[in-house]
## 1
Amino acid sequence: MTWQERSDRTLVRDLKDRDGATVTLLGRLVARRDMGGVAFADLLDRTGLVQLVLPGGMATPALQSVIRCSGVVAMNERAPRGVEVQVAELDVLSAPQVDLPFNPESLPSPCTEGGPKLETLLDHREVSLRSTKYLAVVRIASEILAAADDFLRYRDFVEVKTPKLVSGGTEGGAGLFEVKYFERSAFLAQSPQLYKQTMASTPLERVFEVGPVFRAEKHATGRHLNEFTGIDVEIAYPNDLRHLLSLIEGLVRAMGARLAERCQGELDMLGTKLPVLGEAFPVIDLDTAKEIATGQRPTRSNPAEHLSAAEEQTICEWALREHGSEGCFVTEWPTRFRPFYSLPCAGNRKKSETFDLLLRGLEMSSGGLRQHDAAALEEAIGRQGLDPAAMEPYLRVFRTGCPPHGGFGLGLERLVQKFLDLPNVRCGALFPRDRNRLAP
Ligand code: ATP
Ligand code: MG
């Protein structure tokens, strides 16, 4: 038997085909109006919002009540979506028992200034996440994931899930959360890096993972969470770094295209526009990026190491101005400042075959070709102050024969933030985790 909608319920999106019919609706009462002595209310279900006309003498339930009502469908040009339901019967299934901290339906778009403070919205996630505008953000995140899924599976990628309880770190600088693991300590994975490399070394060749990533960094910025959703991708046998760049550029374009195709309603409701992706993301090396950002070319005695948040911003402004694209690749990062598994450039081992992808002024992804020579890898592990003995299981992947490979990791919340031009990465998360927030 196929699963179907319960038979006694009509969804709001189907009302337009039911003129004159008696229907039953289930949903939440999100607005109330009194006009010329007639009481109106708006009911919201998962498919949309409809105006209810309440009969004289019926008390209007409190805002945010969950109701079931029956009545006759009537076309009315002046009603939102041109249809309303003239209610005959109404049951309140659940009414709020406390005052709401704010009315979710009157919240401004999270893309704009104003309204309650972000902290208040996050403290009361159970209410802010009921708002149509905030749910538009949730739907957008879901479509971004669906786009990634389609794009990658179509290209032979297999989705994997790897452990989040691990025995050590992989990303050097990024801090580790320690957890009790029976009689010893374990850590929450700060990236699926070693596992995805292991899987790409098998004859699967192409894997991706969507999963939680934990970083115990004491940041207090608008771009860092302590738990985020990583979209991690790894392939065997890339031609070269450019091959990875075209893969991730295709992936980000597929996300943008899906949002443009399916989410115009959400984008309009949020009052925002997708980033301009242009014909091609420009590719510049780190020295050029620094020169664009600061006006000064790095020198041998004063080499470039990182890009600051402000520099990333300036580079994306330059990319839009000069190349008509808010996306920009930065390559040729110093090997010393990249993770130990990065492949040094053949011609200059101080530089690495790695990249960052910037979008609308923010790093969306880091990636690159990986070192697959066991001895070189062991040396790199030692050079970065890590313990090769602790990495034995990982090193065996290389000692037993490993294809050349490469990949990248993207952060879902940052993608949501930048596709929607949200002011803070927390706005792109459902229940953000930061230094001061562990609930709700
Ligand atoms: P940043 O330099 O911005 O701190 P990172 O270089 O430490 O980031 P990576 O280790 O390269 O981050 O992680 C890959 C991707 O995961 C990043 O490009 C970003 O999209 C996302 N990401 C990393 N750290 C965070 C974080 N703390 N909060 C949200 N997303 C993150
Ligand atoms: Mg990075």
## 2
Amino acid sequence: MEEHAKLKEAAALRGVEYVRDGMAVGLGTGSTAEFALRGLAERVAGGLRIVGVPTSEKIAGMARDLGIPLVTLEDRPELDLTIDGADEVLLSTFDVIKGRGGALLREKIVALASKQEILIVDESKVVDRLGEHDPVPVEVVSFGWGRVCRELTALGGDPQLRKSQDGKPYVTDSGNYLLDCHFGTIDNPRALAYLIKAITGVVEHGLFIGIATRVIVAHPEGIQVYEKP
Ligand code: A5P
């Protein structure tokens, strides 16, 4: 396994240690979250009794194949914890960008239903300012997406419609489009989050503000666990 993947796996397996018998667990999306899913499945095979709420159709399918029992948020409106990856993390505030994997809407709904949101990342995800490397993905209804683009441009976002490999617009699990917005470094993520959410046609965005409760960062030298500041 390449070094980067090893770090993702190390962070994921540390995250899985927080899962206890009887918990309802949000199952994140992305390559790091998939390592956590496999770690969780091993514990389930060993007798751990949990139920999971998946944040994407892909993770739901993997969880079923791995033997992790699934429920919906209607069955379990309050979850004990969620384990998920992230694209950029600001450790000073726990503000985060998520959504490169396209699952930000369900990820945010599940995170908000959870008492704890545990983020598992390799050190490359830790930034000094949000927006350093990654765009902010914005999920929008497909009808009139061009108009929303203009509003996001007015906010300085330089939105790009995300495309699938076949060149057609990428469609999320909830049937929406994604606009990847390149704001550059973001001075005030909370204010930007409000401004984006206020645009009619926006369903949700990838700025996760005040949601994460614990961040697990894997470095080549070892793991560091950060609690909400
Ligand atoms: C999925 O929509 C994203 O929010 C992921 O959590 C994020 O892209 C991290 O992905 P990796 O773990 O694959 O880096």
